[in-house]
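Late entry, evening session. Most of the bench is empty. Finally got around to the prediction I had been postponing all week. Sequence below, unchanged from the version circulated by S.P.
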Amino acid sequence: DGAGPSPNMEFKTFFDAFPLGIFVVDVRGKPVYANLAAIELLGKGLWPEAAIDQLNDIYQAYQIGTNQLYPLTEQPLLRALQGETHQVDDMEIRQGGQIIPLEVTGTPIFDQQGTLQYAMVVLRDLRDRQRRNEQQIALQQDLLRRNQGLVQENATLKRKLAMLEAQLKPM
């Protein structure tokens, strides 16, 4: 039979190669797909039997800097199921002894008649961005310290110059 790979297999291969996490639930909120990047970021595979309100607990999704599970009212996946596109950058996943800050964008997926079929989130790992920000802050602090040192050195040199000028003035 000369049939090639099914379109579904081609999409799975394509999405598994995608560098961002992709996680999809059906209209009832049941997980139906997670690409390899999502599984790596979340630290767990797909839990197809899970209800939408269990996902934060299953995947240990917290609001950054708190011990509170991410608020369901702000959860991009839940908002996508309500037909809204919603993005947050204050979610973190706690897994395997590490904390992974995420930017999460939820998008509803409609059929040709405009009926909601799926909700999808794209997960972006913010660790590299966080490291760059920390490096930039450290560099700014270093430059500020160096500038303060130069200001002090300049004031010292001005005082010494004033003393030398005073010594050279004829009495």
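Two things to note before I forget:
The radius of gyration is 27 Å.
The chain has a mean pLDDT of 87.
Will write this up properly tomorrow.
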